[in-house]
Amino acid sequence: MVKSVTPPLHLRVADALRGRISRGQLPVGAALPSEAQLCEEFTASRGTVRQALAALRNEGLIGGGQGKPPVVRQAAVAQPFETFLSFTRWAREMGREPGQRTIEVARRGASPVAADALGIDEGAPVVEVLRLRLLDGIPTMLERSSFVEPVGRLLFDFDPDSGSIYEHLLGRGVDLRAARHTIDAIGADAVDAEHLTIAEGAPLLRERRRATDATGARVEYGDDRYRPDLVTFTIDNAQTGRAGQHVLKETS
């Protein structure tokens, strides 16, 4: 039997406050309860509460302080690069409830963009997935994925509404080893607007992804579109031994 591990109290306090901010219970500009109030509410020491508040400051969710209760700076939660391959994992690590609503899983000919990204001929068979991703039930990201056919066919015996596609594929022996990400801004098209409940033309953050296996063979091309009022992206740079070289690290 696997025993569940209760997260440290400072993480649970941070998760609770993060949830209140994202749900609008603590809107942008609102002051958080004082440290004394938080200590009493969560039966926590002042040091524990300060750890929780420091985590929220590092994420850019709160600011201020200096003897006064901190205030909410933004409601969007940050997603680091390392977790791009699993929306489900990232959401759970943030103390949020991930969800998904599958709109389509279909085998069809690769579009010109997908064909270029996957290194296959235009019209070659791929399996396309269109899913709406949710945070605490709120439409947050529209996910478009094109898998090479031998990998994508493994999705026809899987319910994409049940959880992570990547976890399923890894469990079936698919080698998802690396990915290249490109981030830009794009206006919502009619499909985005319908499913993300926003106006057509509204700005979205787009993350395009090309996933490969250990040999460098291309496995998936993704085009994920996030509501910027709900999600931001974070990058930590660490200089390596050679000047001008940087690596991406996960932020917490």
TrEMBL record:
<keyword id="KW-0238">DNA-binding</keyword>
<dbReference type="GO" id="GO:0045892">
    <property type="term" value="P:negative regulation of DNA-templated transcription"/>
</dbReference>
<feature type="domain" description="HTH gntR-type">
    <location>
        <begin position="7"/>
        <end position="75"/>
    </location>
</feature>
<dbReference type="InterPro" id="IPR028978">
    <property type="entry name" value="Chorismate_lyase_/UTRA_dom_sf"/>
</dbReference>
<dbReference type="InterPro" id="IPR036390">
    <property type="entry name" value="WH_DNA-bd_sf"/>
</dbReference>
<dbReference type="GO" id="GO:0003677">
    <property type="term" value="F:DNA binding"/>
</dbReference>
<dbReference type="InterPro" id="IPR011663">
    <property type="entry name" value="UTRA"/>
</dbReference>
<dbReference type="InterPro" id="IPR000524">
    <property type="entry name" value="Tscrpt_reg_HTH_GntR"/>
</dbReference>
<dbReference type="Pfam" id="PF07702">
    <property type="entry name" value="UTRA"/>
</dbReference>
<dbReference type="Pfam" id="PF00392">
    <property type="entry name" value="GntR"/>
</dbReference>
<keyword id="KW-0804">Transcription</keyword>
<protein>
    <submittedName>
        <fullName>GntR family transcriptional regulator</fullName>
    </submittedName>
</protein>
<dbReference type="InterPro" id="IPR050679">
    <property type="entry name" value="Bact_HTH_transcr_reg"/>
</dbReference>
<keyword id="KW-0805">Transcription regulation</keyword>
<dbReference type="InterPro" id="IPR036388">
    <property type="entry name" value="WH-like_DNA-bd_sf"/>
</dbReference>
<dbReference type="GO" id="GO:0003700">
    <property type="term" value="F:DNA-binding transcription factor activity"/>
</dbReference>
